[in-house]
Amino acid sequence: MKVFIERITTNHTFFMREVDHFNFFREKVLPYLCKVVRNKDLRIWSAGCSSGEEPYTLAMIIDEYFGNQKIWWDSQILATDISNKVLNKAVQGVYSNAALESLPSLWKLNYLNKIDKDKYEFKDNIKKEVIFRKFNLMEERFPFKNKFHVIFCRNVMIYFDEQTKIDLINKFYDSLELGGYLFIGHSESFARNETKFQYIAPAIYRKI
Ligand SMILES: C[S@@+](CC[C@H](N)C(=O)[O-])C[C@H]1O[C@@H](n2cnc3c(N)ncnc32)[C@H](O)[C@@H]1O
Asked: Which pTM does this prediction carry?
């Protein structure tokens, strides 16, 4: 079964994928959350995170955005995937020079250590922002105690039929705080009249 799951899923991912989402997150979502999040505990979920490029990018954006105010925030990124193989790579936080090419050079300097000619590893302060866990999005109930402020589930639902997608989107809705955001992949869609989400921008939805 494990080998089967690894085989049927595509884990392809890369840093800064669908970069307009990351810009929206920095320019619109974080300023909003700064104003409304009580206790300064920011909860973000990267669902279907593959080898970690998406959650680590979010961790760097958050760190850069908060700057020296970061110490007052208890931000946490939960990153889940069904595949052990990609999660093992993600936890290591080691990426090749080529994989990191699209990152601003300042990020490379601030957030990664060079380990040899071709490899870099995320510094501990970024690694500790991301919690990697195995989780199957097909689970009937989501086991999370607290609701999230933002969910990224991009380029995952391409494998799912319409009903499965709607069920999942509705579970995401229930798992979000009011005002929270859902990001899906640009090439993905779902029947909007079947959910309570409000469309905000391409592949961005909001619980209002
Ligand atoms: C193409 S990658 C997307 C990675 C990243 N979100 C992105 O947009 O670049 C899709 C990931 O979804 C995961 N996935 C597929 N079905 C899943 C399921 N039922 N539960 C959890 N993860 C799943 C795969 O293992 C794969 O790593």
From this structure: 0.95
Write out residues with Cβ below 6 Å of ligand 1: 9-13, 17, 48-50, 54, 81-83, 86, 136-138, 154-156, 159, 185
Angle (CA) 104 42 153, round 5°: 65
Task: Read off the tokens for 131.
Answer: 């919690």
Q: What is the pLDDT of residues 99-117, one digit of tens each?
A: 999 999 999 999 999 999 9
Residue range 24-64, pLDDT digits in tens: 999 999 999 999 998 999 999 999 999 999 999 999 999 99
Q: Both tokens of residue 207?
A: 């619980």
CATH code for residues 2-91+134-206 = 3.40.50.150
Q: Domains of the chain: which residue ranges? A: 2-91+134-206
